[in-house]
Amino acid sequence: xxxxxxxxxxxxxxxxxxxxxxxxxxxxxxxxxxxxxxxxxxxxxxxxxxxxxxxxxxxxxxxxxxxxxxxxxxxxxxxxxxxxxxxxxxxxxxxxxxxxxxxxxxxxxxxxxxxxxxxxxxxxxxxxxxxxxxxxxxxxxxxxxxxxxxxxxxxxxxxxxxxxxxxxxxxxxxxxxxxxxxxxxxxxxxxxxxxxxxxxxxxxxxxxxxxxxxxxxxxxxxxxxxxxxxxxxxxxxxxxxxxxxxxxxxxxxxxxxxxxxxxxxxxxxxxxxxxxxxxxxxxxxxxxxxxxxxxxxxxxxxxxxxxxxxxxxxxxxxxxxxxxxxxxxxxxxxxxxxxxxxxx
Amino acid sequence: xxxxxxxxxxxxxxxxxxxxxxxxxxxxxxxxxxxxxxxxxxxxxxxxxxxxxxxxxxxxxxxxxxxxxxxxxxxxxxxxxxxxxxxxxxxxxxxxxxxxxxxxxxxxxxxxxxxxxxxxxxxxxxxxxxxxxxxxxxxxxxxxxxxxxxxxxxxxxxxxxxxxxxxxxxxxxxxxxxxxxxxxxxxxxxxxxxxxxxxxxxxxxxxxxxxxxxxxxxxxxxxxxxxxxxxxxxxxxxxxxxxxxxxxxxxxxxxxxxxxxxxxxxxxxxxxxxxxxxxxxxxxxxxxxxxxxxxxxxxxxxxxxxxxxxxxxxxxxxxxxxxxxxxxxxxx
Amino acid sequence: xxxxxxxxxxxxxxxxxxxxxxxxxxxxxxxxxxxxxxxxxxxxxxxxxxxxxxxxxxxxxxxxxxxxxxxxxxxxxxxxxxxxxxxxxxxxxxxxxxxxxxxxxxxxxxxxxxxxxxxxxxxxxxxxxxxxxxxxxxxxxxxxxxxxxxxxxxxxxxxxxxxxxxxxxxxxxxxxxxxxxxxxxxxxxxxxxxxxxxxxxxxxxxxxxxxxxxxxxxxxxxxxxxxxxxxxxxxxxxxxxxxxxxxxxxxxxxxxxxxxxxxxxxxxxxxxxxxxxxxxxxxxxxxxxxxxxxxxxxxxxxxxxxxxxxxxxxxxxxxxxxxxxxxxxxxxxx
Lengths: 344, 332, 334
Fold this sequence. Notes:
The complex is a heterotrimer of chains A (344), B (332) and C (334). Chain A is built from eight helices and 17 strands. With 344 residues, chain A is α+β, with helices and mostly antiparallel strands. The radius of gyration of chain A is 21 Å and the shape is globular. Chain A starts with a helix and ends in an 8-residue tail after the last helix. Chain B is an alpha+beta fold and 332 residues long. Chain B has two domains: 229 residues, Aminopeptidase; 81 residues, CATH 2.40.30.40. Chain B has nine helices and 17 strands. In chain B, strands 1, 2, 3, 10, 11, 12, 13, 14, 15, 16 and 17 form an eleven-stranded mixed β-sheet that branches. In chain B, strands 4-5-8-7-6-9 form a six-stranded antiparallel beta barrel. In chain B, helix 1 crosses helix 5, helix 5 crosses helix 9 and helix 7 packs across helix 9. Chain C folds into two domains: 226 residues, Zn peptidases (Aminopeptidase, 3-Layer(aba) Sandwich); 88 residues, Elongation Factor Tu (Ef-tu), domain 3, CATH 2.40.30.40. In chain C, the strands form three sheets. In chain C, strands 1-2-12-3-13-16-14-15 form an eight-stranded mixed β-sheet, with helices on both faces. In chain C, strands 5-4-9-6-7-8 form a six-stranded antiparallel β-sheet. A three-stranded antiparallel β-sheet of chain C has the order 10-11-17. The relative contact order of chain C is 0.19. The chains are: A alpha+beta (344), B alpha+beta (332), C alpha+beta (334). Chains in contact: A-B, A-C. The interface between A and C is large, with 67 and 69 residues.
């Protein structure tokens, strides 16, 4: 499948943190093309198993999260509009006039209210509050109550826009792009020797605190974990600590990642002439790797990130070649390293 | 209500829950097959199943917020730190009681601007004339609970420590229904919830349940000018959708809803921002636990006047019992 | 009604070509006596009649953007055209120029915003459009300075008879005018589709001068804030209460005879209407009223929530009542 088509397919289904079943199904079916078996655990993590057939092979977990940020209904107002409570880190600036889907008895379309001109105080740069951002689903309270309950999910309306130079904008490239890179890695691995039992994992509830990865790492207890997430892409208003699009995946060096294996990864990237960038992170990477590293007796982690502009908006923008290079890098890494490389 | 009153008036700040644990053991010991206290002080009571069932864990925390003495100054005033989430404005000119019965009045430095009040500008006055005299009654590291009375407000009752003695009370009342099902049921009264779900973290690991339900208080959106929260007092027990610590597993939410419908229990759905409870820790135990929360609507949480509705308490007990009775069968 | 088609067209003030071409095409099949396109791009359609000279007008243009700079990195800076609140821009999609090059209005991720910046409203001058170009050269191959851009927002029907689209202000008026043209009236009717309303009701000035009408009725999309968190006194119009009749706004005090006639025909034909509860805002009525020796003007409008945003919302009921009122008004002249 063409990378854009794969990304679009992965961006389409909804999967608010804690309610990932829609994306879960899509991931299960995509994984099943490459895996001997696909299962789903208690919290909803999807695990695809690719055995290498060798006895005593080491276990490698490759994971990306499939959940996305959004909201849940906190209250139905007397005028039929909804107030919402955020799930994950939402920038309130993206909300006015944003289009949403309210997952009530049926999928309902809604618009987040924006202030009309006569109520805008031009001299005041006011703080926004979720209390003022009413979601208009076009119904009276009476009608709304028949269709919507407190706690119903609200997700941003989907939309995939191809831009120039292999760039594309979408609602939740964070971290469906990671899932796409996992699938591409599995595709490359079909043709490569690999001496590891691979667990291809799509995790839940990353956006609310790395929750799915924590329990999954405990369950699988792998010998090595490779996390794929997104990192901030460079834009005119954000240069520090950001990475340009199209210059390859970003490899993290720091206390969260296994130094020796990370160096190995870098060597392999250089030898194979795959573009990459380096991120030096002095502590919490804010990714699943942070939770996985300290599961059970400790799990060596590698963290690869795909540069993404406008993270946590509905126009998250990435370069599809970075996704492809990430998949390729993972597959070549697993092809080149030996079981004994995984040690301290 | 006598039991609730007794539970609320007993003192048990986080880490010092023994008074509460003793009361609970007295109440439940005749109804459970075994009980034990684990290294963190959690009281784990087990009602064995008839076999072939699941392992279900209920949790309510015994601890309450309070203060802990950090410095005793030359004049005999006590400086203190918080145990759990304490709003300094809730403490002004309140009284606190230490375990040995010593009572003190909480006030603040005379040069404090009210808008800038914080705990480092506050002290406890126990009426001592000097450091030496104060030290006869209080040591550094002693903790104290808020002084409060248990009052009946017609539909509601109000006292300190309703968070989470109300939950303990409901769980005790459920234990007393003496249900035996095929499931092994673990009634766990946890410690140190107010310091970050600490007791539940280890209790969850030890019990390793198939399903878990915490019982705790939650906020309401029904006082004047309250913002975006649909929960109301007297409107029934809450089935939690999410808080800062957990997104309740949809299976558990649906199960609880079905139980409520079957037994005609008045319930409301709860979306809470800025709070968490024991299930937040339990559901991330080991390889994950399907968990949810039953909440009791409560006003003025973390104050001496935590208020709950008598009716909601009844519905809460009924819902706990119903979730035991219907046994988490996959049929739902 | 052609609202879906009309709202899909790009028509930033001064660049109304797509809308004009569409309307001219539709008018071809209708019975008219004369169609004029003037120097500013207004369309004036004459349907001769014996009665007084009555002009009805709606504007074709919409708020939007003009590309003002292409940065060295290939991003586009822009100027807004018409009143756009920066609050509705972040995380929205746009289409640029005739070739509809897609772009996004991104902003530094929330994680990277420090302190108060998280709460502050975005500043328009800090925003930019990202078309994915990797260089200035690549961007220049697709976009030129001065190209217009509009919100990329589709037409959605939802809720209880609601419509979401961009540019409901004032394609809803254009759609109503096209319906009006399908019927015959006794008055000497001039139907004007005007330009550049959003930058100061400018097209209407010359259209009114040309028509020199006795009466004029402007059909608009107007501000509506009938939902949370607006307080009662801030609710300037309401959905599902019919068209809004303006008594006074920033551009004109409406003619009492016209307002009286509107209310009168509405009552007689059982058409729901409401009165505008603010004097803010302006419409083509101001320009028309003061043209030549003066014209008796009125305004009726469809309430649009989130006006001037990519997602404005109107009620189908209000639109159909607005059309009924406009027709009844025109038929009252004989």
